[in-house]
Amino acid sequence: MSTEQNQVVTTFPQRLWTYLREMFPLQVNVPAALLGFFVFYFLLQVIYDIRPLHITPQSLTGALTLLAFSLLTRIFDEFKDLESDRLLFPQRPLPAGRVLPRDLQALGWFLAGMMVTLNLFSGKAFIGLSILLGYGLLTYKYFFLPELHRKSLLLTVATHNPLVFVSHLYILSVFLADYRQSFWAVPPAVWLAILLFWLPVLSWEFSRKIRDKSEETAYVTYSQIFGPRLAGMLPVFCLTLATLLAWWFANQLAWSVYFRLALLFAYGFAMFGFGRWQWKQSPRTSYLKPFTEKFALLLYLSFLVELIARYGLQ
Predict the structure, then answer these.
(1) Is 313 helix (H, G, I), strand (E, B) or coil?
(2) Are 301 and 259 in contact (CB under 8 A)?
(3) Helix and strand totals (H; E) in the chain
(4) Residue 9: pLDDT above 80?
(5) Are residues 207 and 304 in the same domain?
(6) Which H or E element spans position 289?
(7) Does the bond joining 200 to the residue before it have cis omega, within 30 degrees of 0?
(8) Residues with Cβ within 8 Å of residue 85, at least 6 apart in sequence
(9) Residue that wins the pLDDT comparison between 83 and 266
(10) What is the CATH number of the domain that holds 28?
(11) Boundary-marking domain end, from 181, 210, 237
(12) Backbone region of residue 313 per phi and psi (left: phi > 0; alpha: psi in -120 to 50; beta: other values)
């Protein structure tokens, strides 16, 4: 452990900054939240034939809400995993004492209050936020079946990963409020778009819990459950389906060859990493998470560039 990590931090702002720096780096998470929100928000405008694209005040509020909710779920995980983190990840800020439970509780209540305040008078967006917060609280409480969830990684991913779907429902609610559209008339392409952007997150969940046999510990992984090769095929399936859906959108909307080339490059890069793992499992090839992360980044950037270049931004 570094000298900096051992340093005693005594003030509330210092402890929070330590936590954010180590567990929720803003230089990564702020751009990621903005990118995730606006790519889907812009695609919704295209699906609804709204030209040119717009950034509205409510969409900025929505993006800030999504960022706050991402941090809130990170805080939820800190308390949910505290006992296991003390054993498996004692160097993290909360188990190590560099941030106190009351610090994160105060931050969590502030974030919840801020999200409610930002969306209180937004109609459909407030309904979407209520659903998002409600589902988030259910995941925090392990759907009131904590022991069952702690014993089953598959049950946990089945109940917790749909939070990505619910997050996109919130973005959809912001869009519906902005453009006075009915939820009951949402076209099928919207649900395909949600699935498209959900799949890379599911792939990331799988890929970050795949290890070589020599690296396995008490920490439960998909490679323990399914074996290394089959576990490695789970993120491959997700990324392949995401690529096919993105290609379908490109065909339906007559998008440029540059978007398709970027999509193929992202997919090929990811498949190189997973193919290497299938060829030979070792500690060197087991670090699969970056391949999913790079795929997702290239996918979102390709969508953003194509959307703005083709339809304009006002």
Answers:
(1) strand
(2) no
(3) 16, 0
(4) no
(5) yes
(6) helix 289-311
(7) no
(8) 78, 92, 94, 95
(9) 266
(10) 1.10.357.140
(11) 181
(12) beta
Q: What is the pLDDT of residues 277-309, one digit of tens each?
A: 999 999 999 999 999 999 999 999 999 999 999
Q: Which helix (H) or strand (E) holds 1?
A: none
Task: Decide: pTM greater than 0.90.
Answer: yes
Residue-range definition of the domain harbouring residue 83: 11-181
pLDDT exceeds cutoff 50 at 6: no
| Distance from C-alpha of 279 to C-alpha of 272, rounded to nearest angstrom | 10
Q: Of all residues in the chain, what percent carry a pLDDT higher than 70? A: 97
Alpha-carbon distance 162 to 196, whole Å?
Answer: 13
Q: Are 76 and 139 spatial neighbours (Cβ–Cβ below 8 Å)?
A: yes
Q: Which residue has the tokens 């812009």?
A: 42
123 lies in a domain? yes
CA separation for the pair 216, 207 (Å, rounded): 14
Tell me whether residue 129 is in a domain: yes
CATH number, domain containing residue 224: 1.20.120
My answer on whether 130 and 219 are in the same domain is: no
Token pair 């060859």 is at which residue?
257
Express each pLDDT in 89-131 by its tens digit.
899 999 999 999 999 999 999 999 999 999 999 899 999 999 9
252, two tokens: 């339906």
CA-nearest of 127, 212, 130, 134 to 173 is 127
The residue among 181, 205, 224 that closes a domain is: 181
The Cα-based distances of 257 to 109, 254, 312 in angstroms read: 47, 9, 18
Query: What six digits make up the tokens of 55?
Result: 């950034």
**Total domains, the chain:** 2
| Pair 175, 277 in one domain | no
Is the per-residue pLDDT at 183 higher than 60?
Answer: yes
Domain co-membership, 197 together with 165: no
